[in-house]
Amino acid sequence: MRYVILRDDDTNALTPIECLEHLYRPFLDRGLPVNLSVIPEVRANLTLPDGRPEGFLVGRRGGPDETVPIAQNPKLARYLQKEPGYHIVQHGCYHDYFEFAAEDRPEIARRLDQGTFRLLEAGFPKPQTFVAPHDKLSRVSLTEAAKHFYVLSTGWFELRKVPMRWWPKYLRKKMFKAPHWQVGHAALLSHPGCLLSYRRPYDTMLESVTSAIRHQRLTVIVTHWWEYFRNNGPDEAFIEILHQTAAYLAHQPSIEVVSFDDVAAGKVPLN
């Protein structure tokens, strides 16, 4: 049996419900879990290098210090809570670019706690999984996140950013070319890049996803909801690839789609 986790990043208080519904209804109707990496208190003035608002802000440009907690969109919170197929993951706190790339331990711990508080405030269960914005984690952030959560999902792990006491387990992971590993109670999961992305060729995207799944026991597939709605409208060709992925996963008897919560509960082998 092979296992797949679908991780969608950047849901926040400004995310339109209809975007998530359009993307993930085929997954939900098939009983396939969707792990939404939710920004607890999104900073509303985040911009791209050219000055445009980040795609997940849906064109909004906030004030210099404005943040929007997820609880300020109760309609979205209720929608996510009534769908058992959605599993909520903590995605940083404000989604600052280097938010968890710093070494300030008190501030890192504060932001982890603040993010969790904002999710609880909105009525979600206490999150068991953490995703850092842009997959950027310092050594201090890795240590603190492993204390707070049962699962960490990121793109990769580097020796220089791994706490020294973790090195023997890290080197063992590297020796056996294992994508995932365990430190104490925390499962540390890597992923093969954002395979479902408009930046990748559409004609080979589905094959890239299926190939990644074939080559490891547990695969984390990462995508971003807002990429499907660039330029003020849906990219139907891209959305169709996502829906083909749902059909593929649903019809493969040797593949089980699982949640990060399943990993935290010890129901899924890591490698």
What does this structure look like?
The chain starts with a strand and ends in a 7-residue tail after the last helix. The protein contains 8 helices and 11 strands. The chain has one domain (2-264): Alpha-Beta Barrel (TIM Barrel), CATH 3.20.20.370. The chain is α/β, with parallel strands linked by helices. Helix 1 runs parallel beside helix 7, helix 3 packs parallel to helix 4 (139-148) and helix 6 packs parallel to helix 7 (236-250).
Task: Output the keywords.
about 20% strand; about 35% helix; alpha/beta; 9-stranded mixed sheet; 11 strands; two-stranded antiparallel ribbon; TIM Barrel; about 270 residues; 8 helices
Give the structure's gist in a few sentences.
This protein is an alpha/beta fold. The protein has one domain: Glycoside hydrolase/deacetylase (TIM Barrel), CATH 3.20.20. 34% of the residues lie in helices and 20% in strands.
Molecular shape: globular
N→C terminal distance: 11 Å
Question: How much of the residues is beta strand, in percent?
Answer: 15-25%
Order of helices and strands: EHEEEHEHEHEHEEHEHEH
